[in-house]
Write a structure and sequence with these properties.
Oligomer: single chain
Shape: elongated
Mean pLDDT: 76
Number of helices: 13
Helix content: over 70%
Largest sheet: none
Length: about 300
């Protein structure tokens, strides 16, 4: 039987991850943008890695060797996919002229190495493929941390601003743990004496990823409720909103429906829709969540 503490660790990580997977799927279906799609794909890949690692630790490898082998293959395939999806997410979120060439170059290298590691695994050289896969995966995570930090302050996708910022901070903290567990496992297991199959650091990264996403999503909906009059006035001035649009903005971010805004301001429904469309156009947002996160970013200092 696997270590109960290890199983609890996998279950907690995966349970938190399921929540972020559901939220990111909803965002992807609603927004239908490249960055929302790529974020969902990255979350899905990490969820699959976490689930397969958890089941592998629950299995008796000798009595279910075929299933164990299939899960191991799935784990490796998802790790290879993550190497491609992570820089693809960075490329989708930050598409400035200088960033485009660098992102595409790294994406090409990552895809090539992921394919090479998969080929080595299928060719009967799993150890070589594993080392190559782990090394490039860590490099992809480091690349994302550095690029996201470097892009801070530039204009990019509003909804992902807080998300990627939070993830960058969390990833920077757990990145040394990931490298240590994979590159010097003897030292790592001396500190954390758990017998595990597969990586025990990736579920930690998945947990940080999920908590970061849910925290930024929660902040985007909750923090505007306590915003001051000055915060709304400054935000409206920065984006060229009219006094009436400022009133509509406050009611919209407070959670009022179009009908409630119409009643509160004693205006017609077409006027409400016209004001909201103008707010989205001036702020370059496409939905309420994106607008809410943009407002939160402007009214709260970055960490």
């Amino acid at each position: 039987m696997a270590n109960p503490g290890l199983i609890a660790y996998f279950l907690v990580s995966y349970s938190i991850g399921l929540a972020s997977l559901a939220v990111s799927l909803a965002s992807c279906l609603k927004r239908r943008s490249r960055v929302a799609r790529d974020f969902f794909l990255a979350t899905l890949v990490m969820a699959t890695i976490g689930a397969s690692s958890m089941v592998m630790n629950l299995l008796d490898a000798s009595s279910a060797s075929w299933l164990f082998s299939a899960l191991s293959m799935l784990n490796h395939t998802c790790a290879a996919a993550f190497i491609v999806v992570l820089p693809l997410l960075v490329h989708s979120a930050y598409r400035t002229p200088g960033a485009r060439a660098i992102n595409l170059a790294f994406l090409a290298v990552a895809a090539t190495v992921a394919a090479a590691s998969a080929a080595l695994f299928l060719a009967g050289r799993p150890d070589t493929g594993d080392r190559l896969l782990l090394g490039v995966k860590d490099l992809a995570i480091l690349y994302a941390i550095v690029r996201i930090h470097g892009y801070r302050g530039r204009r990019h996708d509003g909804e992902m601003e807080n998300v990627l910022h939070y993830i960058m901070i969390g990833s920077a903290v757990v990145f040394p743990v990931i490298v240590a567990s994979e590159m010097i496992p003897g030292v790592f297991h001396a500190v954390v004496p758990l017998e595990s199959r597969g990586s025990i650091s990736l579920p930690l990264a998945y947990c940080v990823w999920s908590v970061s996403y849910l925290a930024s999503w929660f902040r985007g909906y909750v923090s505007p409720l306590g915003a001051s009059e000055d915060a709304y006035r400054q935000f409206s001035a920065r984006h060229g909103l009219s006094p009436r649009e400022n009133e509509v903005l406050r009611l919209l971010l407070a959670g009022q429906s179009y009908k409630e805004i119409m009643a509160s301001l004693a205006i017609t429904m077409p006027t409400v829709k016209s004001h909201i469309a103008s707010i989205y156009r001036k702020t370059e947002c496409t939905n309420k969540m994106q607008l809410s996160l943009l407002f939160s970013s402007a009214s709260h200092p970055k960490v």
